[in-house]
Amino acid sequence: MDETARRSLTRFDHLSSALLDEVDARSAEEAVHSALWPTVGAVAGHVTAVYRWVTEIVRTGAPADRAESPLDDDTKTTVLRDARDELLAELESDDRECWVIGGTTGTTAFWRRRMVLESLKHLLDVRTPPSSHFAVPTALDAELASDGLDEFLQVFLARSRSSLDPLPGTVRLAATDIDRTWTLAPDWSLDDDTEVTATIEGSAAVLLLLLWERASALDEPDRFRITGDAAIVRALESTPIHR
């Protein structure tokens, strides 16, 4: 196993353990800042379903069905822990071919990265009350955030692109703490050579929170700097890329 794989496993172990601790310390009915999974029990049920789904994909190499339901106080910790431990054991195996999001064939490495980011995202959900802004965790350094931005734009956006209304202009995401930019053309393609009509600047971490719909460049001027046409930023923030 190479160093990248070991680093991903270490991050997944750390973040999924932190998520378990947060779920265990809270009531299943406690509200969190998520429209899709509005309680701790709902987040725990979702993550359990994802962990089981990925375990089956990695184990068999083929796509799998996924079903989820909220967990209660009697099940939220033990069921999530069992799913997490089973997935960790599969991800510790040597790389092998398997189905990946987008309907293509990749390797276990795809899911190691995906589960790091999945665990981190929902750890943020469990930690954040409905009326609070999402804080940037110490685990989300510029390198990991850049990796998350790459994943979102290359995997999730690619899957949704054909169903999205065009942007009214070109928008560039510019990280202020690492030498990286990502430029979206009106057709949602990545194109660093196109003329930019709006720019959103911020740390790589807050740019990732923006794409994860857990921050707003328009509503949080202390975290973001916008130049150019704000209507393009508004279109970016309001487009349901994940759906």
From TrEMBL:
Q: Which GO terms describe its cellular component?
A: plasma membrane
Residue ranges occupied by any Mycothiol-dependent maleylpyruvate isomerase metal-binding domain in the UniProt entry: 16-127
GO MF annotation list: metal ion binding
Question: Pfam families under this entry?
Answer: MDMPI_C (PF07398), MDMPI_N (PF11716)
**MDMPI C-terminal domain spans which residues?**
143-231
Q: Name it.
A: TIGR03083 family protein
**What is the scientific name of the source organism?**
Microcella pacifica
